Amino acid sequence: MYAQMVKSEGMKSRDEMTPEEQAFQDRVDRGEKIEPKEWMPEGYRKTLIRQIGQHAHSEIVGQLPEGNWITRAPTLERKAILLAKVQDEAGHGLYLYSAAETLGVSRDELTEKLHSGAMKYSSIFNYPTLTWADMGAVGWLVDGAAIMNQVPLQRTSYGPYSRAMIRICKEESFHQRQGYAIMMKMAEGTPAQKEMAQDALNRFWYPSLMMFGPSDAESVHSAQSIAWKIKINTNDELRQKFVDQTVPQAEYLGLSIPDDNLRWNEEKGGYDFSEPNWSEFFEVIKGNGPCNRERMNARVKAWDDGAWFREGLYAHAEKAAHRRAAATTAAE
Ligand code: FAQ
Known about the structure:
Blueprint: H1 19-29, H2 42-61, H3 63-67, H4 76-101, H5 107-116, H6 133-153, H7 159-187, H8 191-210, H9 222-227, H10 235-253, E1 263-265, E2 270-272, H11 278-288, H12 292-305, H13 307-331
Antiparallel strand pairs: 1-2
Bound molecules: Phenylacetyl coenzyme A.
The site of Phenylacetyl coenzyme A (FAQ) has 29 residues, from helix 2, helix 6 and helix 9.
């Protein structure tokens, strides 16, 4: 049904594992959670840092396309809701950076890697948000895709990541509902408003499908990540589930999915659908999407503008440590 998964580089068969690695794999297979101070293979640690770090960066960069519309929300209520959603994304970034820190990497190191282009963030946030209807499409489709990916990640094998996901998923559900509520309002509005909703769906459909990553045949990390239960499902499995869930929602709105090949396939019990343009995806993750430069410039500027504040915090922490040390010496 899905493309064959490729073997991940360096992935070992049981016979090739050391006794320590075998014992670790047994724990994972039994469904035990791995906690920060416990022994883990270096590859497991690195894969988690890559995935959790990329996820954290996505939450932070992901504030930008919606932040763009806070000042232009059509009503005070919509503004308050959007503001709360964007603030939630900042919180998700922080839980995830904290989860990554338990693996021995600092948030500053991760930020530096994002800014230098050594680490990625989700391709979806390199597309522009052109109209208010895009706030609906982002909530409905982008948060919808995020939930599809993140609900299984609540069962991921690394304890801190799994616990961060449980909390994040609760908030993402509200995000998806608020996006769908915007789409419902637009779709039952004037013909011009319905047209805006359709246009937003047309532009966000394929980029949303890309969020799940390349097809299983091109996904270099899936096999190893699934064996370690860092990932629970393959990219194609989750993409299929997302399409199956979203098509009836579009029908309810009276909008059309921009895909002439979309058809219910009775035999597989799911929709057949067109693949996204994968060369566009690989260009976007290489840094050549419509908004990559704008997004990175905004993040680097925010980081640089905040330098005085971070320096103030460090100076304060240093003085407080000196005072504590002096008080301890005086008491002795
Ligand atoms: N964008 O071998 P695979 C959100 C890269 S949700 C960019 O399949 P893997 C909420 C991949 O890193 C969005 N790069 O990789 C929100 C690898 O490159 P590398 C974030 C991508 O890791 C909503 C290469 O392609 N969610 O932010 C993408 O096994 C609204 C080969 O790919 C997560 O991060 C992509 N879409 O599977 C916020 C969820 N796909 O690192 C604000 C956790 C693949 O070797 C507003 N992450 N690549 O240089 C995952 O589940 C996985 O990492 C996948 C990719 C499924 C994304």
